[in-house]
Amino acid sequence: MTGKTETSHDSDASHPETINWNAFWQHADAEDREGATPSAHHVRDLLAQFFDAKGVPDSFASVGCGPGPVAFDVADAHPETTVRGYDAAASIVAENRDRADRDGVQNAQFEHAALPDFDPDRQFECVLCYGTLCYVEESAQALRALYDAVEPGGHLVLGYVNDGYRRHMQRVLDDPAGHGKDAFDRAEFERRWRLVLDGDSTLTYDAIHDAVGTWPRSFWEVADYPDERWAWDDVPIVWLPK
């Protein structure tokens, strides 16, 4: 997750203490968008294997969906699946709705919602939250809300950052040029990643278990470890049965 950010203390800004995603998606260029969702292709590939192992869900929710790369992919690959994308940024929700209408995507809808107060008024067979929890300080509350949205017999798929990622981000902050960041806004970086740098939004297996009462399970139980290098140790992906 790199690129320019838009920050604001406005009360209506999504995650205003770190980054205003509403403004970000309104002004982001192609490079910014790619930087904000760099792992989307990994998640799509892994979900396909997960569905092969566990069955294609009748209903699927992507929480913190951004421009919807995973939500649209699932909707396209599985037209029988009801897909919902949720995001804290009203601007990207509107953009996704326009895309769904334009492309005739019948089985995907997009709604405004923000963690930790996520209450979709229904449950889903599979709920995905990836690349979002690092911006949420109330981790336990957010995890409970996500798990509550999973129907019995379903699955919660989580991506999160751990202390290894916190150390990595601190190294970037200490030596930006050494990490390929020639144009570096220190204040912006510190603000966007404040919760990670302070260890307030990093998670562990124990923390997830303590929040929801279920142990997370490694994705590599049901999916092949990708050949392409990625920060899997610092940005784990897990699944929780319900």
Could you characterize what this model shows?
- Strand 2, helix 5 (90-103) and strand 3 form a beta-alpha-beta unit.
- The chain is built from ten helices and seven strands.
- It is an alpha/beta fold and 242 residues long.
- Residues 1-13 have low confidence and may be disordered.
- Helix content is 38%, strand content 16%.
CATH architecture label of the domain at 52-162 and 203-241: 3-Layer(aba) Sandwich
General form: globular
Give the class from helix and strand content and strand pairing. alpha/beta
Distance between the termini: 30 Å
Q: What is the helical fraction, as a range of percent?
A: 25-40%
User: Per CATH, what is the topology of the domain at 52-162 and 203-241?
Assistant: Rossmann fold
What summary fits the major beta sheet? Answer: 7 strands, mixed
Query: How many helical stretches?
Result: 10
Q: List the strand order in the largest sheet.
A: 3-2-1-4-5-7-6
Mind sketching the topology for me?
Layout: H1 21-27, H2 30-36, H3 40-54, E1 59-63, H4 69-77, E2 82-87, H5 90-103, E3 108-112, E4 124-129, H6 139-148, E5 150-159, H7 163-174, H8 186-192, H9 194-197, H10 205-212, E6 217-218, E7 237-241
Helix pairs in contact: 3-4, 6-10
Please describe the structure with a list of short key phrases separated by commas or semicolons.
Rossmann fold, globular, 242 residues, 16% strand, alpha/beta, 7-stranded mixed sheet
Short description:
By secondary structure, the protein is an alpha/beta fold. It contains ten helices and seven strands. It has a domain of 150 residues: Rossmann fold (3-Layer(aba) Sandwich).
